[in-house]
Amino acid sequence: MYTEVTGRIKEELHNVEFAGITTDIWTSVSYYDYLSLTIHYLDTNFCLHHCCLEVVQFPVSHTVQNICQFLSKLVSDWDVSQNVVAVLRDNCRIITAGLEMSSFEHIPYLAHTFHLGSKDGLPGSKIVTNLVSQSRRLAGHFKHSVHDTQILKKCQMTTVVPLHRLIQNELTKWNSSLNMLKTLQEQKSAILLVGWELDLPELRRQQWTLINNIIPVFNIFDSAMLQVSSTNVTSAECTSAYKVLYGVNVTGLVQVVEHELEKPAALGSGIQGLKMTSWLQ
């Protein structure tokens, strides 16, 4: 079956004039490293196709030379070296350096750029950092206590809010902080009620206000990431965004983000410095 499918895909790729490649390296739950190679192209009817050509173990060190050699060999084995217009990658330093050594044009994944801008911008605002840390402790309290979670559920029913579990953020994923704050915002009345019965990590009144102020800022990046991660996003949208990132004045998604971030924040909202910091980072 593998031989049959491989032969059919190679025959189809033989008629492809231009293609893009996406690649990544990750570690499985069994602690094996893998490298993937996926090709993207249009057929003669302008229908978009994606083929995962390889998912192979990466048993050697994650050095620049090894990454370059692995990718070059995989592309050569599939005989598409001359068809690859560009390789789309994340912003990982080793992946970037490995592709710098290769003969391929490569561009960073825009959604990952937005992700880094948001995640790295958080430490620039101590008041926001403290809020996220305190919110994480509050959500974690219920995550580790079945008894207190049942009390929260009763308070949810009393205050007529959705019976949702509190979300605790993951430190490596900035948008999980957004989801955590949205859940706290939704469950505020139940959390305040349960606080009368339990000894909880409390959020002060100013922090509840900050949650309301910061969610719209995070939503800007979240919406932009969702847009460029869509299977229907066009290269024109992403290309114009990259041009803005590199200083060319064109209309694009990034300019929309910049416009939203440049809107003045209200005095006392706690986010005056966060908008510009997150974007400049």
Structure description:
The chain is α/β, with parallel strands linked by helices. The protein has two domains: 2-108, Nucleotidyltransferase, domain 5, CATH 3.30.420; 115-280, no CATH class. The protein is 54% helix and 14% strand. It has twelve helices and five strands. It has helices spanning 2-13, 64-77, 93-101, 110-121, 126-143, 146-159, 174-186, 188-194, 205-229, 235-245, 253-261, 272-280; strands at residues 19-27, 33-42, 48-57, 84-89, 106-108. A five-stranded mixed beta sheet has the order 3-2-1-4-5. A hairpin with a 5-residue loop joins strand 1 and strand 2 (33-42). Residues 244-251 have low confidence and may be disordered.
How are the strands of the biggest sheet laid out side by side? Answer: 3-2-1-4-5
Distance linking N and C termini:
49 Å
Give the number of DSSP strands: 5
Order of helices and strands: HEEEHEHEHHHHHHHHH
* Apparent shape: elongated
Strand content: 5-15%
Please tell me the total number of domains.
2
| Helix fraction bin | 40-55%
Alpha-beta content class: alpha/beta
**Largest sheet geometry:** 5 strands, mixed
Gyration radius from CA atoms, angstroms: 23 Å
Our count of helices gives 12
Average pLDDT: 81
Spans of 5+ residues with little confidence (pLDDT < 50)? Answer: 244-251
